[in-house]
Amino acid sequence: MLTREIAAPAREVDGAARAAIGAMRKTAKGPSGERATGGERAPAAAAPATWHGAVRQFKRELLERALADAGGNRTHAARALALQRTYLLRLIRTLDVPASPRRWTVR
After folding, report:
1. What pTM did the predictor assign?
2. Which of 22, 30, 20 is nearest to 60 (CA)?
3. pLDDT exceeds cutoff 80 at 97
4. Which end of the chain is more exposed for a tag (fewer CB within 10 A), N or C?
5. How many whole angstroms from its chain centre is CA 35?
6. Cα–Cα distance between 27 and 13 in angstroms, integer?
7. Radius of gyration of the chain from Cα atoms?
8. DSSP H or E run through 11
9. 32 vs 98 pLDDT, higher one
């Protein structure tokens, strides 16, 4: 039972990673569809130099997108990503994701 619970999010992350790689490949091509040459490449600062840097950048962008889609609501973003809310908060801190500070509301 546990392997099914773990396998589903792993497949989702794998699919999201493949989609991100496909999007990166599309942007690396020139307007006529051929691959960009040395003079047309994006700046080196835009692409991470290491595997860990690429994973960190992917996680940051995924968290930023989920928070934007949830209107800044961290609980809703955590549910959308199938994460525990506390783990999402830890990722926000460790990856330096810009998130608005928690606002307390009186009901």
Report:
1. 0.53
2. 20
3. yes
4. C
5. 25
6. 21
7. 17
8. helix 2-27
9. 98
* Inter-axis angle of helices 51-69 and 85-94, nearest 10: 120
Pull the structure tokens for residue 27: 């942007």
d(CA 87, CA 57): 17
CA geometry: angle 94, 9, 87, nearest 5 deg: 25
Amino acid (1-letter code) at residue 84 = Q
Only one residue has tokens 């009186």, namely: 106
Closest by CA to 30, choosing from 22, 39, 20, is 39
| CA distances from residue 55 to 13, 61, 82 in whole angstroms, order as listed | 11, 10, 18
Q: Which residues pair with 35 in a beta bridge?
A: 29
